[in-house]
């Protein structure tokens, strides 16, 4: 595999669950969270951590679908992009959605590991984004939401102190 391939896998890994210089990655940001923390909203029309987790899983699925030509609608949940979560404090459902994120990420990473350098450079018909750009974007998306989760965790704790 070419070095750009190894670099891309390293970036995807660091953004999701590997140690890196930038601090907390997506998986690290949700480690040990209770369902109460995951379901808390800073205000009624704002997303909670739980919804960010499922949103991240959905977009990893969307990238995986593009790389593997999986059929539309094969995401395990009905809908797309944002999924309402946390209306009930169901620990099993929260853990199930974290597991969905993990499974989806592992499947995406396995698909990436199978790509050739030419497939990585390819821009599919109907798209303006190469597979390389898509996958580096997935990593950026994971880190973006990891930062949001870190902020929501802090707001949750600060709320309890006042």
What does this 3D model show about the protein?
It is a single chain. This protein is mainly alpha-helical and 162 residues long. The chain has a single domain, classed as dinb family like domain (Four Helix Bundle (Hemerythrin (Met), subunit A)), CATH 1.20.120.450. The chain is built from 7 helices and no strands. It has helices spanning 3-16, 26-30, 35-39, 49-68, 91-113, 117-121, 131-161. Helix 4 (49-68) packs antiparallel against helix 7 (131-161). The N and C termini lie far apart (54 Å).
Descriptive keywords:
mainly alpha, Four Helix Bundle (Hemerythrin (Met), subunit A), 162 residues
Q: Which residues form runs of ≥5 with pLDDT under 50?
A: none
End-to-end separation in angstroms reads 54 Å
Outline: globular
Proper CATH architecture: Up-down Bundle
Radius of gyration: 16 Å
Query: Tally the helices: what do you get?
Result: 7
Beta strand %: under 5%
* CATH homologous superfamily title: dinb family like domain
Taking the sheet with the most strands, its summary is: none
Overall helicity? 55-70%
Could you tell me the CATH topology label: Four Helix Bundle (Hemerythrin (Met), subunit A)
**Average pLDDT score:** 93
Written as H for each helix and E for each strand, in order along the chain, the element string is HHHHHHH
Task: State the name of the first-level CATH class.
Answer: Mainly Alpha
| Quaternary class | single chain
Count of DSSP strands:
0
